[in-house]
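re: ur question from yesterday

yeah so i grabbed the chain u mentioned. its 458 aa long if i counted rite. heres the sequnce exactly as i have it in my notes:
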Amino acid sequence: MAKRHKNSLPPMKDEQPSFEEFKEAAHVAPVAVAGRLTRRLFTRGTWPEAQRVKELLRTETIGGLILLAAAVAAIVWANSPWRDGYEALRDAHIGPDFLGLNMSVAHWAADGLLAVFFLVVGLELKHEFVAGDLRNPAAAAVPVIAAVCGVAMPALVYVAINAAAGGEGLKGWAIPAATDIAFALAVLAVIGSHLPTALRSFLLTLAVVDDLIAITIIAIFYSKGFSLGWLLASIAVVAVFGFLTQRGIKHWAILAPLAIVAWVFMYKSGVHATIAGVLLGLVVPVKGKHALAHRIEHRLRPYSAGFAVPVFAFFSAGVTVVGTSITETLADAVTLGVIAGLVLGKVVGIFGSTFLVSKFTKAKLDENLSWADVFGLSLLGGIGFTVSLLIGELAFGTGSVKDDHVKVGVLLGSLLSALLASIVLGRRNRIYRRIEEEETRDADQDGVPDVYQRPEPA
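ran it thru and got these structure tokens back, copy pasting raw so excuse formatting
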């Protein structure tokens, strides 16, 4: 009889085949309890997936630190004696008139550079649905439910506050819905948190689903001047792009022009131009002979995280508070709605839904974790930045008074969420270090940490 790994489960006579899908799940796994099989939340998953997540999050963490620096630089400049220069640069127009693309620098950053960010999001979505956690309904259930509730609750909190106040504030209902994974990871890097692989993987999956919902909201509720002809033209170009990548065509001189044309057509359709990036990412093959998704993502993610998103943040975060009434700003229902949505709505949505899932399904947390970890992760989910600022601009217009209030709300809400998350997660850091040591121990020196070893077939 083949040897069984020390961490494997003993054979169980009453084990049901329906639980097989949980064996390789990253966030929901089987565990023996009282002679039967039940579910376990936030397990570390497989070694290949853990490696991929680690590599991906390393890039996002560096990008998040650059993002923080860009946001701080924008705020400092916008409130300095030279703030007129910041506004002049932000509002300067460039681009060809004959194509209808003569836009401000800030507009180019939001519609142009963020298209690269959303292309990477599309590639990540494709991977998750085809080869990642979201391909498995059992593994996907918890982060998907948490993401949906983590979008719905902040929106409801925002609407409740602004409905009472009246006015145009309700247009920004989706602003506190998004979680900024790069910003969240930057906070973890700053506080030196050794967050376990399972929690980082959950946060990543949560953010991916969060982005998908935000993309859908932008496409449906924040598009203007819709033109079906231009939309169909963009989709046709995306289809050609997908056909070529499916055939293994990977030369940038062929694919890049097609991507640009698809973006231009999407811009002219009235649907937010960044949606073109998502569609392009979704048609790139992930598996098979011509799997190009990982290669394209590997090349684009550093550019997206290290340049595109920080530049957008630089031109979006620069709110001027000098000479304005900060009391009036903080009293505005838009500002309050954004802050409350990010700090309270996210926690209620993410933590509350995860807790209820565990109660209704009798799932148990991984033995190394506690509900304090989930609470801290939920607070981290309240860090909204890139997509929140984008929706604020789409809802109220770049440079408007309400848009400035959105920026203050996003900055303060994200800062408060980051501080609270740092306190909660920081108190658990000693335990996280112990988990990290366990997850990296390789006693047999075979290149794979011992905890990721699987039992040999019986």
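noticed a couple things. Residues 1-38 have pLDDT under 50 and may be disordered. also The longest helix spans residues 47-78.
anyway ttyl
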